[in-house]
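Sample entry (312 residues):
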Amino acid sequence: MPLVDLGAAIALGLRYFTIIYLTGLGGLFSERSGIVNIGLEGMMVVGTVMGAWGTIAYGPVAGLVTGAAAGLLFSLVHALATVTFKVDHIVSGVVINVVAIGLARFLSQLFFGQATQSDPGIPDFATINIPLLSSLPLGLGQAFKGMSPVVLVAFLMTIPALFVLNRTRFGLRLRSAGENPEAASSLGVRIWPLRYAGVAISGALAGLAGAFLAIEINGLFREGQTQGLGFIALAALILGNWQPLRLMAGALLFGIAQAIPLRLQDAPVISLLPEEFIRMIPYVITIIAIAGFVGRVQPPAAAGRAYEGAAT
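Predicted structure, serialized as tokens:
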């Protein structure tokens, strides 16, 4: 296998890492506030169609913003159900995922005149080369040439995420809402706004990831293009034990795994497998990783539990 193919696989893996990491980071804020959000997949779906429309109408930056805004607004449905009406978090997340499919079809018909996809070739971002890394020998530098700037932004988002969660009043109170909301409330912390904020952040980042998928990887909106990436982001979040740096490592693993069937299907050993098994590789790796580490992780203590206190 030529190393240039490996470089191309890493480059594609980094793009999938961006989608998984941004979505998982959103899920981290939601679950740190105490709200389990398995509706990330649906929020991504809404982000794909709105991101594609925003890009066609106003350019790729506007597309990302539009996708993020759509994900945020859609996530408020989940927040309303789980925080205000105390609906079971899993049930609400499933409904979000189901509704998103129909909503995306409606929006696609409205914006593009067809229910399942937009016209291909929507505008994307100008690419960048990473100094030093793009000069790596043996074809490996290919992974860092022509990189989308959004990939770099995703890596850099770890710094503000860590700062907000560990060094700001908002972050510390958000974490307290997900660990012991009754104790936090007794100290004057308002739990409901924090949980709404956590879910809203998760929706915005999932919508941003969905828009990136439509703009940078597929070049169009197409029904079903998320292919379970929202659930893989949840797996990366669990594997990362709800910590940004560990989440990043899990997202890198799963992102590279996503690239294997697309770029390394002709590699030694992999090429000996039936095509159906090659396509299963990302999901098999996800299952193995979760099965091996799930007993060693500890979610926020109050995640998934309704808070019965007052709204104010």
